[in-house]
Design brief:
Layout (H helix, E strand, L loop, with lengths): L8 H10 L3 H16 L1 H11 L4 H26 L5 E3 L1 H10 L5 H20 L2 H7 L3 H25 L1 H16 L1 H6 L3 H14 L24 H29 L6 H17 L5 E3 L1 H8 L11 H16 L1 H8 L4 H11 L1 H12 L4 H13 L8 H16 L16 H7 L1
Helix pairs in contact: 2-14, 2-15, 2-17, 3-4, 3-5, 4-13, 4-15, 5-12, 6-12, 6-13, 8-9, 8-12, 8-17, 8-18, 8-19, 8-20, 9-11, 9-17, 12-14, 12-18, 14-15, 19-20
Length: about 425
């Protein structure tokens, strides 16, 4: 089979219902808030920069959240893994400038080419072989580098506005101190509740007019333009294949899961085709959202944390149906709140990734990958996580050759082993 075998969807759904818990559903809601409080506005801003109409913008937003939600639910039940499938946020930022140069039809042509090339490479087995040969330590170092900014922004917010975000951090760690309670109710939920109350009391929650308007679909015919395929397709391709999905794989490994590599590329690849038809860019496995869902806040039992990603998928799909109204409502919340929320949600996952990166082999390569990633400097339009992995591997090949199995020396057999080998 092209995709790794998994569970029956019906059996997994029944299993989920029998084991439904507040921690899983609550942390799924946290992941949903993280991915909508800021990223949704980034997409709308990119659409505005690119000169898209309101109908095209809403269709773009509907597609990425509706398809992401359906894929989250599918992969959660199929593999019982807390994997989040969404869209590339850096990709949306890049498109804000590129859509000025090309029509939406030409952009859609580039999206389709990326999706088809990704599917072809996955089906051929190339992607799985490449991913499986990346040292786990270097992959986790890249993930740690990505998450550093979330931790920094968390404490920037807490120190900058202690009366709101500092109190949220205190509430979070105070709840963590009560282990039994924190296994039932994720500590981040009381922190969010306290944060919202303090925002209201301090006049930071700005009311805005929310129009009663549901999402409408806008179908776009693809136009295949060489310039668009090169300038839009190449940066997005590397974001999808070499950055976003690998982040999610690394996060899952940090928490002790064995991710289905082919599925993490094929499911988003198929979703990307539908996204493109609706004028939206490519679906990916989302590293930060996956980190939130697979972390300890989703419950003490790892085999049940897929409930978080399934719940997130439901919230995303509902958000997609009300995309226009939801994005207007999100504007009421300060950007700092989303930053603090993300830092708290990924606090423990960062620790797992950091520990996995620097406690075994490939330490030099992992260190290079970590520092390259935190520079956040793209090269040739390709984000730093891709170069972090590439330069980390090259460093280990130069100074840590002994850590690679294909360079390991095979010691000649001695004593009884030599006699057996000679027979």
């Amino acid at each position: 089979m092209i995709m790794e075998p998994g569970y029956s969807l019906r059996d997994s759904f029944s299993y989920m219902l029998k084991n439904l818990n507040a921690a899983g559903v609550g942390n799924g809601f946290v992941a949903f808030l993280f991915s909508t409080l800021g990223p949704g506005l980034i997409v709308l801003n990119a659409a505005k920069q690119g000169g898209l109409t309101d109908a095209q913008s809403v269709s773009w937003l509907f597609a990425i959240y509706a398809m992401g939600g359906l894929c989250c639910m599918y992969i959660a039940l199929r593999y019982r893994l807390p994997v989040s499938i969404a869209y590339s946020i850096p990709g949306a930022v890049i498109l804000g400038g590129l859509l000025k140069q090309y029509s939406i039809n030409q952009a859609v042509g580039a999206y389709l080419v990326i999706a088809l090339v990704t599917l072809a490479l996955t089906i051929s087995g190339v992607i799985k072989k490449v991913v499986e040969h990346i040292p786990v330590a270097i992959m986790l170092a890249m993930v740690s580098g990505v998450f550093v900014s979330f931790g920094v922004n968390l404490f920037k917010g807490a120190i900058g506005t202690p009366s709101i975000y500092g109190v949220m951090v205190v509430v979070y760690f105070a709840c963590m101190a009560f282990r039994r309670l924190s296994q039932i109710i994720p500590p981040i939920l009381p922190a969010i509740a306290v944060g919202v109350i303090l925002l209201i009391l301090n006049g930071k929650l700005v009311p805005v007019g929310v129009p009663v308007e549901f999402a409408t679909l806008n179908f776009v015919a693809p136009e295949f333009n060489i310039g668009a395929i090169i300038n839009i397709g190449i940066p997005l391709f590397f974001l999808v294949v070499g950055v976003q999905n690998i982040q999610a794989v690394g996060v899952l490994m940090a928490e002790g899961y064995k991710p289905p590599i082919n599925a993490t590329y094929i499911v988003p690849g198929l979703a990307s085709i539908i996204n493109a038809i609706l004028g939206a860019h490519n679906a990916v496995c989302a590293g930060p959202s996956t980190a939130i869902c697979c972390g300890p806040n989703s419950g003490p039992r790892k085999e049940l944390r897929f409930i978080a990603s399934f719940s997130e998928g439901i919230f995303w799909f509902l958000f997609a149906l009300c995309a226009k109204m939801a994005v207007e409502a999100v504007k009421m919340v300060p950007a700092e709140f989303a930053a603090v929320l993300a830092g708290l949600a990924m606090f423990e996952v960062f620790g797992s990734a950091f520990k996995g990166a620097f406690t075994g082999k490939f330490k030099a390569g992992a260190m290079v990958a970590f520092f390259v990633c935190i520079t956040n400097q793209p090269i040739f339009g390709i984000g730093s996580p891709f170069w972090a992995i590439l330069l980390g591997i090259l460093t280990s090949l130069v100074v840590e050759r002994q850590d690679f199995t294909f360079f390991a020396k095979v010691e000649p057999p001695v004593g009884a082993e030599a006699e057996v080998a000679a027979q």
